[in-house]
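Look over both lines:
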Amino acid sequence: MVDTAKQFVAESKRRLMIDERLETLYRKAGYERVFITKVPLGHQITIYAEKPGIIIGKKGASIRDVSALLEQEYKLENPQIEVRPVEVPELSSKVMAYRMRLYLERGLAHKRIVFSTLDAVMRAGADGTEVSLRGKFTTERSRFVKLRKGQIHQSGDPANYNDVAVTNVLLKPGIIGIKVKIAKPAVFKPQLTIHEPNPAMLSALRKEKGLTLPPQEGTSSETTALPSADASEGVTVAPEGRHSADSTSAEPEELRTHLVAEQK
């Protein structure tokens, strides 16, 4: 009886080995990833790359070589290979990391490469990006360069949505490590839910606090009476700026004396 756990581990290991092998073969083509699917007639293999023409080769010669390699070395049954282009290469961290590797191998300045990579990723519509380089550039002492542009999460659950790729390049001074992080647009969407207040609960809360309801449409706010502590005695308080008929008795004694003197 075949152990299911061991079978899954062996299958995952084979997929990883195939991915690493294709990455080594087609690094200059901007290789990104591979999908392997078991179909009734064999295995369906889909390769995504920035430059599919390099993988296909002249009249499909390179595809036939890869098909024979996968069938003989990795024991895939009747592999059917399909090559698709990457929709937006600037939003793929692996493609950008390999592109930086090629530029460093050509001898371009590392700062120029980093700044051009950040600009290209942000122009493609990413929310943020971060590029890190570590190694010997021009002197014997190792240096570390990290530049960031835009907004990119570094911790918590949003950091798991970042597209991260790590690679290295061997130059004359030594090995340089490259790490690229890209926060793709509209990938992390916080789930926020706004609930409407319960009218019955809101009305009970207003009664408990002694608050009055706001005036309804079609009624004047001037005629709305405010609650008063003297309501039990029949005394009403008019809105600010106006006086009721019963409020004359509440006028100060000095004000009434002054009005009588002016009439005389």
